[in-house]
Amino acid sequence: MNRPFKESLSLYWTLQKAALRAETGYRFNFVLLVVMGIVYQGSGIAFVWVILSQFDSIGSWTFSDVAFLYSLRLLAHAVWIVPFNQVYALDELVREGRFDVYLLRPLNPLLQVITGRVRMNILGDVITAVTMFGFAVTAADVDWTPAKALYLVLAVLGGAAAEGAVVLLVSALSFRFLHTWSAHFLVDNVFLLFGSYPLHIFGTATTWILTWTVPVAFVAYVPASVLLGRTGDLSVSPVLAWAAPAIGFLWMYAAYRIWVRQMRHYQSTGT
Amino acid sequence: MSALISVDGLVKEFRKVKPHEGRLGSLRTLFTRRYEVNRAVDGVSFAIDEGELVGYLGPNGAGKSTTIKMMTGIVMPTGGTVRISGLDPWRERPCNAAQMGVVFGQRTQLWWDLPLRESFRLVGAIYGVSPADYRESLERFVDLLDLGEFIDRPVRQLSLGQRMRGDIAAAMLHRPRVVYLDEPTIGLDVVAKDRMRTFVEETSRAGETTIVLTTHDLADVERLCPRVILIDHGRVLYDGDVQGLKATYATHRELVVHLAPDESTGRTPAVRAADVLGAEIVSQEQGVARIRFEASRIAVQHLIASVNQNYPVRDLSIVEPDLEGVVRRIYSEGLTP
Ligand SMILES: Nc1ncnc2c1ncn2[C@@H]1O[C@H](COP(=O)(O)OP(=O)(O)OP(=O)(O)O)[C@@H](O)[C@H]1O
Ligand SMILES: [Mg+2]
């Protein structure tokens, strides 16, 4: 039974809406989580803003350039986390054997994982990302052309795919190792710490590693350089810089294939 | 015609990290891994035809659920093959999943926080059940399984028996060709069990649904299963009908003798060991003697004649072993035929 893409998409919506209804059943929790999400993300941003405004420039990038980069990453992160946040819960599903159910139905198991539950606190991620990006984009020094606008859209999607790919790869370890919390924590922090600033300030070796072994650079640093006209600072060629979204999608494709392959190690549970 | 389900030399091994003992044991475990292998399923083979209803039996830990998980595509076999109407459940998961329905008594497949009705709707959408078929099936299930009373309640509020009925309805909504029921009567009261059995019976009757059932309640088996497959330690011990199982494993019968009081003394005599041709007197109370004999060694008519000749008999009956007793002996003594 191979479904057409359109049918899968409509099933995705059906399941996602059901998960949302399930979550809103606990109304008190719902409201609290949204508020918490905003407060949490907002305080993080405020902190960064204060730090950033202490410097005139970081690695020859001005304050508004860094803010643009920072918020571009937040946006890509939000675009990934909204549909895919349940990937972080995969190890729990595997450990408790609840993944069984997803293998029994004629529907992509990953699609069932991500529609299994809606987390309301991610709304905080979205609101802060959009707000901050709104400010940063007006302040940033970008010569907007239709091509750059299109590139921006693709870059956000590609950045989401690049970060998502690595998180997905980590989650695939769940099938063998059952506990992946610490690996997720590490990856999240690498993307947050190194992805949010001009990467070249961390030195050539770090830049190389975070470009070619883990695609941190392609989430926001490379696209932001293109949009800000700073491709000269990059260690990658301008052509490759323009191809950054494609690299994100390639990573995602490969990660998904590996994820599916790792599923064979799923052992279920004794009961 | 070849069988609908064919399982051939199926093996599943679970590997477990074996911890090092002694000083720094946990640190050593972290770096050098030693594995302990547990063969949960060890070369199981059987074939099931379209429309059969088969009881898959065995003691705790025998490997029943593991076999079912391989037949349903949840785990990949370590060795051997499973084919369900020609499909490999692991590699051709979507096609195989579309034609099967599964109930694990231990674990629900319903949406926990949503009303039961919502789960049915979502299942209908996932399997692409047409609205007309959906309405018809739902109506039938509400009727047969008496779901009406709680269909609009969230699943998390349902009692075990209610939830189980909801689960079985959800598993059958798309009219699967093959149904796996892993302990569907676990924890149900007598009425609910009966309803579940009737439902399984009804489903099987038309001959279009193939059902594999595991259970620890042998009343399920006596009522439902013309055929049983019995496994232990991951190996098939018996495959055949229930009568044959008794004939193979329970070769003894019991002669129950009700004795009359002696006319002259008024006392009820006791059966003596010398008069039962070497059979075993299991118990003797209030004028009822239970004599156990091996049907292959002692002819029942000789035994009856001997008892009749020596004692005033009021009534005689021969008790066939019940399935419960047979299975208990197999499980506890690990008998081979
Ligand atoms: N996911 C797993 N990881 C490790 N060992 C397992 C796993 N699942 C089952 N086992 C082991 O495999 C053996 C068979 O288990 P299985 O669940 O198939 O038994 P069962 O016949 O269904 O028993 P029960 O009647 O208790 O349900 C047991 O020894 C069990 O400990
Ligand atoms: Mg079991």
Automatic annotation (TrEMBL), chain A:
Keywords recorded for this protein, A-Z: Membrane, Transmembrane, Transmembrane helix
Ranges that cross the membrane: 30-52, 72-90, 122-140, 152-178, 190-219, 239-259
The record's annotation in Pfam families points to: ABC2_membrane_6
Matches recorded under InterPro entries: ABC-2_transporter-like
**Name the UniProt record assigns to this protein:** ABC transporter permease
List the source organism.
Answer: Streptomyces jumonjinensis
TrEMBL record, chain B:
Species per Swiss-Prot/TrEMBL record: Streptomyces jumonjinensis
What is one cellular component GO term in this UniProt entry?
A: plasma membrane
Name used for this protein in its record: ATP-binding cassette domain-containing protein
User: Carries keyword Lyase?
Assistant: no
SMART domains hit by this protein:
AAA
Gene Ontology molecular function: any one: ATP hydrolysis activity
Tell me the domain of life. Bacteria
Does the keyword rRNA-binding feature in the UniProt annotation?
no
The topology of this chain with respect to the membrane is: Peripheral membrane protein
One Gene Ontology biological process? response to antibiotic
